[in-house]
Amino acid sequence: MKLRGLYAITDSTLLEGKLLPYVEAALEGGVTLLQYRDKSGDDTRRLREAEALRELCERYKTRLIINDDAELAARLNVGVHLGQTDGPLSPTRALLGSGAVIGSTCHAQLELAEQAVKEGASYVAFGRFFNSSTKPGAPSCSLGLLDEARRTLHLPICAIGGITLGNAAPLVAHGADLLAVVHGLFGADSTAEVTRRARAFNELFKS
């Protein structure tokens, strides 16, 4: 399974009232992974939205990932992304099976990534690389960390945190397989602009 390209992440505040049209616009431009990220406690709405997103992803042959909720991921038979506070990855791998995409947040620490690899992660995520409104307090990462990760880890590497079309190219040049983008993709004033940005992010992987 080749995980390379744009990794779109939803934001419930940013996409309020326009989640599906904006996500479809991104998928139209090409998305490798789509993460549904909703920190609210409204389980009914989260299930409804996640089901609608799964349907869209199936149509565009994109893999859906649920943020921090392995049970919802298991219910929908999709992937999951786990933070460091979500406990060990192994039980989730057992729950979701060998074919599921499971990602792990590794902040700016190679040791966390090595541990995640041992526990069966499909990809590891490092960040933040730039100032991020989604995770303002996260420790910052350097391009050197990407170089080191590329040398030592044999699975896809995801970069996250404040990524825009203006600053993304060096991350790809230093070994990022996936660019996880929230505002840099969805903070647009039209669906056409979301599609344009998605295409432009994917172009960075071709050069």
Short description:
By secondary structure, the chain is of the alpha/beta class. Helices cover 41% and strands 17% of the residues.
Structure characterization notes:
- Helices cover 41% and strands 17% of the residues.
- The chain is an alpha/beta fold and 207 residues long.
- The protein has an eight-stranded parallel barrel, surrounded by six helices.
- Strand 2, helix 2 (43-60) and strand 3 (63-67) form a beta-alpha-beta unit.
Q: Features of this protein?
A:
8 strands; 9 helices; 8-stranded parallel barrel; alpha/beta; globular; 207 residues
Beta fraction of the residues? Answer: 15-25%
Radius of gyration: 16 Å
Gap between N and C termini: 21 Å
Low-confidence stretches: none
The run of helices and strands is EHEHEHEHEHEHEHEHH
Please give the order of strands in the largest beta sheet: 1-2-3-4-5-6-7-8
Number of strands: 8
The average pLDDT score comes to 95
Largest sheet: 8 strands, parallel, barrel
Overall, the morphology is: globular
Number of helices: 9
Class from helix and strand fractions: alpha/beta
Q: Which range best describes the helical content: under 10%, 10-25%, 25-40%, 40-55%, 55-70% or over 70%?
A: 40-55%
